[in-house]
Amino acid sequence: MVPDQAWDQAKNVRIPLGRLCSVTAGPSGSLLDNLHDGPDGVPVISPPDITDYLTVDTRRLRRLPEGQAARLARFALRAGDLLVVRQGTLGRLALIGQEHTDWFYSSSCLRIRPRHEILPEYLAVYLTHPPVQRELIGRALPGTVPSLNSEMLSQFPVVLVPPERQRAVVAALADIDEQIRLQRAMADRLAALRPSVLDQLVTEERR
Predict the structure, then answer these.
(1) pTM score, whole prediction
(2) Are 104 and 43 in contact (CB under 8 A)?
(3) Buried-exposed string 25-51: b where 16+ CB fall within 10 A, e elsewhere
């Protein structure tokens, strides 16, 4: 835990992520041999299911039979966890919500479980900040397929600011994200409208 006086001694405190969170690699592939595409069973989140917007795309989730879930209990997710892609699209992550409780994750992901010193939402936006992403990916283990591991991620430095500042950062970025969402929705509507406007103008010109 970061002592209260630390906030008075420095504007920002850089702390290894492992002091603020537990980091757990996904289960080995052999424990997930029986995944299927049917509607029954426990969902298992894989890298393709993690979007660019810190969310989980549930449309193509594979599932583990209910009878095999007990042996993977230590890999169960809960609200406030973060999932980071460790192989593939390195650094992409999702913030786990209440609706994902007791789901599992694949061996190509790492689970970050924040302790009370740091808000999950703050950590999510911090780790997706472009300069931080570049540093994180720059530390990936070399190989045919570059990868991250739990030890490296535990050592990764995180700028920890006071709790009230964390909340302010999250709130400010949430407002910006909402404006981005609205502008994208507007752009989509205009793009859909464009062909009909062109058709109408051409038709009027022919009259």
Answers:
(1) 0.84
(2) yes
(3) bbbeeeebeebeeeeebbbbbbbbbbe
